[in-house]
Amino acid sequence: MNDMPRVSRVEFEILSLLRSKEMYGLELVKESSILKRGTVYVTLERMTDKGYVKSREAERGPHESGLPRRIYSISALGQRALAASQAAAAVWEAVAQ
Amino acid sequence: MRVLRAVSKAIEDYVLGPPAQRKTRAADRRVRLGHVLPLGNRPAARITREILMSIDDLKYGLPQIRSRPIRLALGILFAPALLMNDAVIFALRIASMKKRAIVSAPASKVLALIKFLVPKKAFDRIFAQAVEDFREEYYLELAEGRVWRARWLHVGLYLTLLSTTALWLGTSAAKKAVNLWKIT
């Protein structure tokens, strides 16, 4: 049997936000109340290593300057992990009641 | 009036020599004072310009005066004015330098330090992203005239980088420990 994917609260929040569209770090922080600027990129990197999210370098116009931005999107494994976490949460709520 | 001008020119030519042979010319003065002289036709700008130019002529004309007693007398007489002129020009030069100074982007130094210290992957994917987020918000605040908020963001960046570094170090150490445990 495959190991059940473990998703922390912050990871769950990130996966939920990325389910609808791809975003970059600052957008995630602005959309969420629990994500912090100081931790979001380390968490995203950890999730990339786990295979929950994918990232790509954002395309830039010829007039744009600055450091290259990375845009994050949810992977197939991330979607499965999110669905499993949501199902587990629903079961837990039902049991708790 | 014409007589006065002619007499003044004769004295000037006698003291400094004919214009073509003088060491100090208008072009030299433009080079020395061009970016310091106040522009515009307001009385204050015109008077300041005249005073600065006259004192500059005196300063650079004095060593060319052939008669030593006249040179000494003029030098002593105008020493305070010459010193004051130098102070004013120095102050104006400093002010214009400040206005035109090209500064690096915010957080450039700390970014260079981080780039030197951490692996490229971590720099590109974690620290550079955090700094780019900060810069985006910083420039937005400046564009909207909220300078104090921009300064506060600059302070906040250092706190963000501190917590990012602590978390990154912890995560990296944990990852290394897990890898070692798997090997053994």
From TrEMBL, chain A:
Top-level taxon: Bacteria
Transmembrane segments: none
UniProt cross-references to SUPFAM superfamilies, sorted A to Z: Winged helix' DNA-binding domain
Residue ranges annotated for the Transcription regulator PadR N-terminal domain, each copy included: 14-83
InterPro entries according to UniProt: Metal_resp_DNA-bind_regulator (IPR052509), Tscrpt_reg_PadR_N (IPR005149), WH-like_DNA-bd_sf (IPR036388), WH_DNA-bd_sf (IPR036390)
Protein name: Transcription regulator PadR N-terminal domain-containing protein
Organism: Mesorhizobium escarrei
Automatic annotation (TrEMBL), chain B:
Transmembrane spans: 72-95, 152-171
Originating species: Mesorhizobium escarrei
Entry keyword Transmembrane helix: yes
Protein name per Swiss-Prot or TrEMBL: Uncharacterized protein
Keywords on record: Membrane, Transmembrane, Transmembrane helix
